[in-house]
Amino acid sequence: MSQSEFEIIRRYFAESGLYFPRSGVELGIGDDGAVLQVPTDSLLTMSMDILVEGVHFPLFADPAQVAHRALAVNLSDLAAMAADPFCFTLGLVLPYANESWLAGFSEGLLELAEEFKCPLVGGDITRGPLSIAIQVHGLCKQERVLRRDGAKVGDLIYVTGTLGDGAIALASLGLDSHLGSSFVVDGEKQTDACKQHFHSAYYRPKPRIEFSNNCADFMSSGIDVSDGLVGDLGHVIKASGVGAVLNTKAFPYSNPAACCVSESNRQLAALFGGDDYELCVSVPALNRREFEAAAESVSTQITCIGEIVTGSAIRCLDSQEEEIDLSSGAYMHFRGAN
Ligand code: ADP
Ligand code: MG
Q: pLDDT tens for residues 247-266?
């Protein structure tokens, strides 16, 4: 590297504003390890995501956008635990020390780090093919940890925001969505505003931290939708030992998705697409009102899309209340790599 590793750390990480004071962070960048004081009434949760160029983000993508996405998807995992962001660490593999890339990357991190009061407290840098590992640390209250194994028969299934935008965004950006060649965005209907919406959906997913912290008391389980509803809700029902029924008629879609993508492709994106980073949660029926009021109080759109039932599978009903065979060949071939 043309600059010393130490100089990179100082300029783009330690003194870029990313390492800012936060209560509980006793020591951050600069020593052999960070030192954290976890409040006595809290538990520490940790989550890591690795993003590899050309696999998890496009070659030559804007470094600020990549940074934003990398931290956002990690914070989404904290939201899915109903945790409050505490701090994060960064493992960076760089082909060479590219100053403008590092400056953009550092800036992209800063925006979200400040918004969620989540300072960078350490990491490592080494040379190799561009990849980014972020580990976020969050604080949660013991009785409010949002686990995957808490769903009970009779609970209602809700999602935040809209579904399918992540996969539709990939198609809009000309990237492989894994949903097959007939999964297309109608180019003629795609206005600049639609393109902008999909670009933000991909690069700037909104971690649902405020929602999950505010609503944690009323939810029995939760997961963030990163691989499509069928896959992610599948983890919840497996862990909880229950089944689920979904009503596709109720699925919430964004206006751009409704405008630029056919109904069947929207449904495909919601069920099997990835990258939505919305939360899918179960709510005991008795908590319904309080849950909806709590979501409203933080201006988060929520939609009831189904119910937890006995069994061990997800059944999915279409708008005519007919069952969609999720395991049929028609859907199977969409379920490739994610
Ligand atoms: P060591 O040799 O003890 O492993 P390093 O020289 O790798 O330490 O790192 C020095 C300091 O800089 C440490 O506090 C480390 O956490 C921090 N650091 C290294 N890389 C990064 C990075 N990518 N982001 C933030 N901090 C980093
Ligand atoms: Mg050391």
A: 999 999 999 999 999 998 99
